[in-house]
Amino acid sequence: MSRTTATDSALQSRADFGSDTADKSPSKAFRDYIAKLRAGELGSLPALLGLATLVIVFASASPVFLSLTNLANLLSQSSGRMLIAMGLVFVLLIGEIDVSAGAASGVTAAVLALHYVNNGNLLGGMGEPVFIIFVVLNLVAVGLAIWMKIWAAAVISLIPVAIALIGFTANPWIGMVLAVTVGTSIGTITGFLVAKVRIPSFVITLALFLTWQGVILRLIGDGGVLGINSEPTLRSVANGNLSPVFGWILYAVSVAGFSAVVIGQHLIRRRRHLATSPVIVLVAKVGLLVLLGAAATALLNLNRSQNDNVVISGIPYVVPIVLVLLVAGTYVLNRTRYGRHIYSVGGNAEASRRAGIDVPKIRASVFIVSSSLAAVGAIVYSSKVGSVDPTAGGLNTLLFAVGAAVIGGTSLFGGRGRLSNAVIGGLVLAVVENGLGLLNQPAAIVAIVTGLVLALAAAVDALSRRRSTKF
Amino acid sequence: MTDLLTLEGVNKAFGPVHVLHGVNFSVRPGEVVALVGDNGAGKSTLVKSIAGIHPIDSGTIRFNGEVVHLHDPKAASKLGIEVVYQDLALADNLDIVQNMYLGRERGSSWFMDEITMEEEARKTLASLSVRTINSVRQPVSSLSGGQRQIVAIAKSVLWDSKVILLDEPTAALGVAQTKQVLDLVRRLAEQGLGVVLISHNLGDVFEVADRIAVLYLGQLVAQVPTSEVTQNQVVELITSGRSGELGVARLDTASISAL
Q: Could you give the CA distance from residue A128 to residue A126 in angstroms, rounded to a whole number?
């Protein structure tokens, strides 16, 4: 319903916007990119440069760093936190924080382990009072979700109630569904307290952080350890690998999908006379993915076992897990109305309210996404460790996840960031930890360096924000 | 010319404070009417009543001759009444297209039609002869104050609007930017919209307005063609409610002051 005069043809409107017409030349595209950087839109660039530097430093300092075993290990070690960080990006995008995401992930891990260890008998595992509270809290989450009109969360929060009351016997898939749906319930409660009761997110999630830690302790018992290593599916989530053939299929699907989207977009925009990036940039992007993907797949498909009797090869399962969630989440953020509204609430909540967006609903929903993804992260890190103990999701889990998001370029001030930031930032932190470990540095040095990297990232965020808001 | 929007005897009070007294006010298509008045004269309240934010207590509002009830902002925007507020409702982190379509994105909720939005945003800006914007895909944070105001105004045009209320659109702008915005205001009227311009700056008002409506202590004391008054007369109307033959009678003024 745009108001267009009859004389205004497509060509006419093209002539009015210098930068929006047809193909950009490569040099013009490059200048635009530099201008964007100068305006403070750094994105993941600092993190990528940092990652490259770290890899070069550690590769030259330690011969083991670039070994296949270590690289595969790096991926499976970092992916749990990466997933939690991906969830946190949603919360950070609206300018809030979820300090309880780590502890919440621990609760879901504990419930998963209890379900497995007690062969599906949650009533027996928890004891009657705790079991009743568990069921009631999930029902409360259902009610709150209905109140906030977040129907998906209402349905999902019913699932743990059903699993608990029906009492399926232990099954790794039901266990994982249980963990993720409990995460959804937890997120619904957090989201309600932040968005409807309007408690500042830092305070309420700090309170919940303490609460969930207590809950984990209550569920597992002081000094208790619940082993989930004996279940092959649960073990292989973080420790298993795709067979080489499936590795190549994953590669082919990824490359084909990426190329189709990028090239399709280019052709459609060109047909409609909209600005397109130069073909050479397009070719470079696709080419880079083809080459790097092929190299990574080929390397990970080599046998990396140090024992001659065992063959360990293939892409770790965590890679497709992270990849699928990354692609799905990025799609939601960039292409759906919901994603657009998350950015707008983070950029200007008042403008969003005036535009008719249900701001409290968006606010609550990001906590639900965050806790649900944290539960996926919990499954991965519990699988890596092989057991769940009272420290699950505690210690530095949350701080690493926030750090990963911020190092990757997601702003703590809201409105700016992408899911890929969490992955890149997560890799930076994992490389620091892993590399310093290989160099036999004590924990003190690891902590100090990690902290300084995070401080640097936060400084870059603050400075680039100052740059982009001045006019 | 028939009126697009007519207010007859509109009253509005907040508790004991009577803000609008029997206001008669009209907006015509293709015309810029300036709404002027001192601070506290009721300009904002009048605008918010038209926008449906503060429903009126008594009186009638006609839209295209028919009586309408503007109980909430949705009712107003459904009729095509759009308000561009002083504190621009733009999200800094989104680009121009995303801001113009915020809350009313094209396409399905699971797949927004970015390309159509981009095309139409550009056509709208082009039809308003906006030439100072380099790319519709640049974030709003990179725009100057005048450009932001232009985007905010263009946003309101996108929605088949009939009446646009501009609340101090040039308040924080420099000379060149003010000119751009005033040009845009003129073009809105040329496209057949009814434009209400609220401004403190009489220079701006005399430059673009076809008519001037003066509010004085909640009363609409004069509604005159710009060509028939001088700046001095308007200043007098704003400060004392009367100027020669125009405005309220002296007795009336006294009784209102006594309130």
A: 7
**Highest mean pLDDT (candidates A221-230, A284-293, A298-307):** A284-293
Quick one: tokens of A444?
């003190």
CB contacts, 8 Å: A344 with chain B: 91, 94, 98, 102-103
Which residues of chain B make contact with A351, given a CB cutoff of 8 A? Answer: 88-91, 99, 102
B79 occurs within a structural domain: yes
Extract the tokens encoding A249. Answer: 């299929």
Residue B171 falls within a domain, yes or no?
Answer: yes
CATH number (domain holding residue B221): 3.40.50.300
- To the nearest 10°, the Cα dihedral for A396, A401, A406, A409? 150
Predicted confidence at residue A150, as pLDDT, reads 95
Whether B231 contacts B202, CB under 8 Å? yes
Residue where one domain finishes, among candidates A277, A304, A331:
A304
Portion of chain A with pLDDT greater than 90, in percent: 66
Number of independent structural domains in chain B: 1
How far from the centroid of its chain's Cα atoms is residue A341's Cα?
19
Range of the domain at A186: 42-240+316-469
Spatial CB neighbours of B205, under 8 Å, sequence gap ≥ 6:
B34, B36, B197, B199, B212, B226, B234
- The pLDDT score that the predictor gives to residue A274 is 85
What Cα–Cα distance (Å) separates residue A253 from each residue in A9, A248, A256, A259, B212? 41, 9, 5, 10, 66
Can you give the pTM of this predicted structure? 0.88
- Residue B100 has φ and ψ, to the nearest 5°, of -65, -30
- Segment B45-100, tens digit of pLDDT: 899 899 888 889 999 999 988 899 988 888 888 889 988 887 777 998 999 999 99
Residue A451 CA, chain-centre distance (Å), reads: 21
What's the mean pLDDT when you consider all of chain A?
A: 89
In contact, A395 and A443? CB cutoff 8 Å: no
Interface test with A, best of B100, B102, B140 (most A CBs within 10 A): B102
Residue with tokens 């107003």: B76
Give pLDDT tens digits for B22-46. 999 999 999 999 999 988 888 888 9
Chain B interface includes A362 (CB < 8 A): no
| A95 closest CA partner among A322, A288, A316, A359 | A359
Q: Say yes or no: A150 and A298 in one domain.
A: no
Is A19's Cβ below 8 Å from some Cβ in B? yes
**Is A178 found in the same domain as A59?**
yes
Q: Are residues A262 and A363 in the same domain?
A: no
| Long-range pairs, B66-75, Cβ under 8 A, ≥24 | none
d(Cα A81, Cα A378) in Å, to the nearest integer?
8
Q: How far is A464 from chain B (nearest CA, A)?
A: 12
d(CA B2, CA B6): 10
Task: Compare CB distances from B118 to A8, A274, A341 and report the shortest one's residue.
Answer: A274
